[in-house]
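pasting for the record
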Amino acid sequence: MQMPLRNHPGILIVSAVIMALLAWGFWPQPVMVETTVVKRGPLTVTIEEEGRTRVIDRYVISSPVNGMTCRMHLKVGDPVSRGQELLGITPLDSPVLDARSRAQAEAQVLAARSALQAAKEQALAASASAQLADDKYKRYQPLIKKGLVSQETFDQAKTEAMTATAAKRSADFAVEVAKYELKAAQTALEYSAGNPSLSDEPPSERVPVTSPIDGKILKVSRECEGPVTIGESLLEVGDPSALEVEVDVLSADAVKIKPGMTVLFDRWGGPEPLEGMVRRVEPVGFTKVSALGVEEQRVLVISDFTSPTEKWQRLGDGYRVEAKFILWHEDDVLQIPSNALFRYQGGWAVFTVENGYAKRQTVTIGERNGLTAQILTGLSENQKIISHPSDAVDDGVAIKERISS
């Protein structure tokens, strides 16, 4: 005969405890989340790439004749001045020039002389353009203070003045190079064997090689004594005080960068970033294989330093810098971390925190820099939202904020 359960209170108590534990186990628990607040602050959108410095005007000094060079006593970094003798070459005995060879040597001298004249004319044109751009920039200086011209027009005039000045300097250097090439052509003709003009003079025993500019030694191709041929590279010289920065960026990013745009150079070794301005975005791209083996189309962006020279004078040719191109910036922007955003119905949304529950809120975003997003509509300042929402978070779900240790 079965006994009623009321006669066994222990069974009832155990059953009740089991039912309570099951109910507690299956009862929805609050989801642990991390939260943040909507705030206002500065927001900058940049493109960051590695770049390197390079000397703007770099000259390769080559051998003007076949001969034997002396041992090189100059080292990389040694200062040189224009016209300074860098090394000497003892010419090899050469055969007497026939009529055709002598005519060719004389033609090379005439061609070099014509190239020098063309370089001088180009220098005059560059000087006139630089003067015109500088006058225009100076006229805009009082107008920008009175608000009679736009900031964009003033920046464009400033960029044109800097570009024209650089072009003038390059044209002046081109004149010096043309003079050096003329001298090289004259030397090749003068020191050739059988020259009638030197018949009564003892043959030269040494051809001096001089520097075309004031600067420093950048590279020494030959340090030991030995034979060289015409056109063989001996030295490279340049002026390290005139530097530019080349940065290769993805072609998709290059279309967003414009001449005159501000750029910051960080991680160059100094205590604070250096400022610069984009001078040129080259119109030709090239293929580069990334560290992951992916082929990428890259474009070179050339920038100039605008910070005072004394701040970056320790930089040299080929130094590494981290370039940040400023695409957009505002000082007072309503913003949230990008990790709080998720896609919803073709747009963007976030989860706000209201009375311990998650509430889905659609938002309209503006600019983004990868870590932070601008909020145009949908949220207000100091409103609390959920960061890194997991799949367990949904509209109306009870939540509990995780306390950071």
